[in-house]
Write a structure and sequence with these properties.
The chain is α/β, with parallel strands linked by helices. About 40% of the residues lie in helices and about 20% in strands. It has helices spanning about 10-25, 35-45, 60-70, 85-90, 105-125, 155-165, 175-180, 190-205, and strands spanning about 5, 25-30, 50, 75-80, 95-100, 130, 135-140, 145, 150, 210-215, 220-225. Strands 2-1-3-4-5 form a five-stranded parallel β-sheet, with helices on both faces. It has a four-stranded antiparallel β-sheet with strand order 6-7-8-9, covered by helices on one side. It has a two-stranded antiparallel sheet with strand order 10-11. Helix 1 (about 10-25) packs across helix 5. The radius of gyration is 19 Å and the shape is elongated. The two termini are about 25 Å apart. About 30% of the residues are buried.
Length: about 230
């Protein structure tokens, strides 16, 4: 089980993020001030850390610097302020991503998955393979199959399918998918997601798959819907 440290002085935010992280299968540790966050980060092994900037004691930037002197654990900075210089500073001192309040818990979890996915690819960790009802997506080997029939997808199409399928029945907005797969600093049009989804569906529809579909949720986004799931 992967471990996550959630450090924020807002107990309400911590409670919400803790709930969603547990749904994702994480073992959760929380901290409400910078000194406690730093102590826990240095003496416990975590897979990823969510770190608020404005905390009593030591602020998030100071905590991030201290962690980076001893650890390469992925860090996502969280702040109520969105000035560019703060984002740049956070990334320069070693943060892996940066998210601005207010945010949705689903968006935060999408960022967590994206960072862990990037780290996994760099570190050569366990292969990313998803199988369900005849569908197989192997990200590392770049293979997608339905009932043994290979579907030729681009890298981004396969990543979209994998992201949706591994979070079945969960709705992802365009922004969620862009942040997860293109990165928070992507400056293009989020409508590119619609284009990729359209092409992905056309390719998948070449082989029947009655048990599931990539469904549009109008006004919200897309999801991997499992039909007749009890």
């Amino acid at each position: 089980m992967q471990r996550i440290l959630i450090a924020d002085d807002s107990k309400q935010i911590v409670t919400v993020l803790e709930k969603y992280a547990k749904k994702e299968g994480f073992a959760v540790t929380v901290a409400h001030d910078g000194e406690d966050a730093l102590r826990k980060a240095l003496y416990t092994t975590f897979d990823i850390i969510l770190l608020d900037v404005m905390m009593p004691g030591k602020d998030g930037f100071e905590v991030c610097r201290e962690i980076r002197r001893n650890s390469t654990t992925p860090i996502i900075m969280i702040t109520a302020r969105g000035e560019d210089y703060e984002r740049v500073m956070g990334l320069d001192i070693g943060a892996d991503d940066y998210i601005v309040k207010p945010f949705s818990a689903n968006e935060v979890m999408a960022r967590v998955r994206a960072v862990l996915r990037r780290i996994s690819h760099k570190g050569g960790s366990a292969a990313q393979i998803f199988t369900f009802d005849g569908l197989k997506v192997d990200i590392d080997k770049h293979i997608t199959q339905i009932d043994g029939v290979e579907i030729i997808l681009t890298k981004k199409e396969a990543e979209i399918l994998y992201t949706l399928a591994t979070n079945r029945n969960k709705v992802f907005s365009r922004d969620n998918l862009v942040d997860s797969l293109w990165g928070w600093d992507y400056s293009g049009d989020t409508r590119t997601v619609d284009t990729h989804i359209k092409r992905l569906r056309a390719k998948l529809d070449e082989v029947p798959h009655p048990g599931w579909e990539i469904k549009t949720i109008w006004g919200k986004g897309y999801k991997f819907e499992v039909r007749n799931e009890k």
